[in-house]
Amino acid sequence: MTLIQTNDSLAFNELYSRYKVGLNSYFSGLLDPTIAEELMQETFIKILNKSHMFRFESKVKTWIWTIAKNTIRDHWRSVDHKIINSFDSLTDQETGEELFEAPLTSNEELILSKVIKKQLTACIEELSEDQREIVLLHIQSELSHQEISELTQIQIGAIKSHLFRAKDKLINCFKHGGHL
């Protein structure tokens, strides 16, 4: 981080490589993929522009996730934000075909994995906002309970409780075809 504060581009590239997958997973789990990509890039711009504000009082990882979380919250608060419900139909976004009506081919596993992913995504969408955020931070972004607690200002016991309840809800939802 010291090198980034001195505008060292190689250090920033290393930081970008280290955190881009986790941040992309976090944003993609909460937003439309196009918006997720934009917000991820916006987050990295903020990291670069605000690097001088990092005081080495917390982990760099926690500081980065705080910026990411605030970027999402700013997006949700924006006037022109529209909630996009991408779960209304089970169509393949590339081909426009209904997944269940598509003829079964040698690609059955691919179709099945798309259906399962959409079903799991729909189940995650049905969680409360707090549960959804904590689940995505823990599973997709691989943050520890302590890091999530620091980021969300929620006590570790409550984090564990949210994760436990969310897991039960996800299992139930998945068993019932994508509905809680």
Structure description:
The chain has helices spanning 2-5, 9-30, 33-49, 60-77, 108-125, 129-140, 145-152, 156-175. 66% of the residues lie in helices and 0% in strands. The N and C termini lie far apart (43 Å). The protein is mostly helical and 180 residues long. The protein contains 8 helices and no strands.
- CATH class division of the largest domain: Mainly Alpha
- Outline, from the CA principal axes? globular
Sheet with most strands: none
Category from helices, strands and their pairing: mainly alpha
CATH fold group of the largest domain = Rna Polymerase Sigma Factor, Chain: A
Proportion in helices: 55-70%
Strand content is: under 5%
Residue windows where pLDDT falls under 50 for at least 5 positions: 79-94, 96-107
Short summary:
The chain is an all-alpha fold. It contains eight helices and no strands.
List keywords for this structure.
mainly alpha; 180 residues; Rna Polymerase Sigma Factor, Chain: A; globular; Arc Repressor Mutant, subunit A
What topology emerges from the helices and strands here?
Elements: H1 2-5, H2 9-30, H3 33-49, H4 60-77, H5 108-125, H6 129-140, H7 145-152, H8 156-175
Helix pairs in contact: 2-3, 2-6, 3-4, 4-7, 5-8, 6-8
